[in-house]
């Protein structure tokens, strides 16, 4: 089978680099185009990007020439978007209109009614929106999105709890510095410190999960009927968002029932290459999960949960630039391919 040609928009950035890492040697996708700003276009990737991951910059991409973020310059069937939101707003629709499948990691289109906000383990049926989106807009291509990196961790853990009738969720996040990009938080601001504010984050966290866990009624997504109240904080951790979660449920399950629901959760995505063997990993030690020890579980795609207590209260944690960003988009693209939409 010929591989599907993939491009990365914003390929030189923090998330762009994770895309390159995640697409290297992918069995279905071949990375054919690396796009970034005019500052980088025309340069070899190794000159344009400061490679900041622990893995080596793959040789096969180091000498690729970076192109501009322009549908006429990008050679691909699908583009993974890791652009700043304001730039994404301008160009993602242009790419979709030009016939590209756009798997976007940016906030720009997530809450647009005819754009699926996907977590394959939670709402694979929401891809039905794609047909509606294409008809409405008259596009050859289409846009899908993945959630904010804080939303995705707790939304995934809520999926197996939906059976108990979720009424309200409270979440307090402890977010890694990589979520803000390499130059996002100065070291003098975050070392020996916690910053109890992340611009725009609580608004996203308080709305996205209801769309993800909502019901597709044949025309639109009817949001899930629970409230989310969030408090978001930046902590001096490199990678891995940790979240304290309180969930009130109509059936008032015990911690043992909640633990069992997490253990039983099997979304049946074993045939997708980026899918972890376990989407949710239950840690029974009293002091887990921890970002340094648990963020790479399932190659960065598992969400670890622990400290399940009456209330119901628990901690969840996952890798913010893999499960929370590039890995999430790649998993979405794999779902689209499996469903014949790519
Ligand atoms: N799912 C999630 O929650 C997460 C999402 N994100 C989102 O992913 C996106 C990328 O974040 P991150 O990688 O940290 O950002 P970076 O600042 O590290 O990278 C930005 C990338 O976009 C390119 N770029 C910047 N401005 C322009 C422009 N005007 N035209 C074309 N390309 C441009 C840059 O190219 P150059 O190097 O040439 O300047 C670079 O490749 C953001 O929207 C961010 O919010 C990030 C983390 C997690
Ligand atoms: N706000 C997240 C990362 C991010 O960019 O989120 P979004 O994709 O919703 O803009 C963080 O700082 O950790």
Automatic annotation (TrEMBL):
Keyword line: Amino-acid biosynthesis, Diaminopimelate biosynthesis, Lysine biosynthesis, Methionine biosynthesis, NADP, Oxidoreductase, Threonine biosynthesis
CDD domains per UniProt: ASADH_C_arch_fung_like, ScASADH_like_N
Domain of life: Archaea
Domain Semialdehyde dehydrogenase NAD-binding: 5-130
GO molecular function: aspartate-semialdehyde dehydrogenase activity; NAD binding; NADP binding; protein dimerization activity
One GO biological process term: diaminopimelate biosynthetic process
Active site: 149 (acyl-thioester intermediate), 241 (proton acceptor)
Enzyme Commission no: 1.2.1.11
Pathway the protein contributes to: Amino-acid biosynthesis; L-threonine biosynthesis; L-threonine from L-aspartate: step 2/5; Amino-acid biosynthesis; L-methionine biosynthesis via de novo pathway; L-homoserine from L-aspartate: step 2/3
Cross-referenced Pfam families: Semialdhyde_dh (PF01118), Semialdhyde_dhC (PF02774)
NCBIfam families listed in its UniProt record: asd_EA, PRK08664.1
Family note: Belongs to the aspartate-semialdehyde dehydrogenase family.
Record protein name field: aspartate-semialdehyde dehydrogenase
Source organism (scientific name): Methanothrix thermoacetophila (strain DSM 6194 / JCM 14653 / NBRC 101360 / PT)
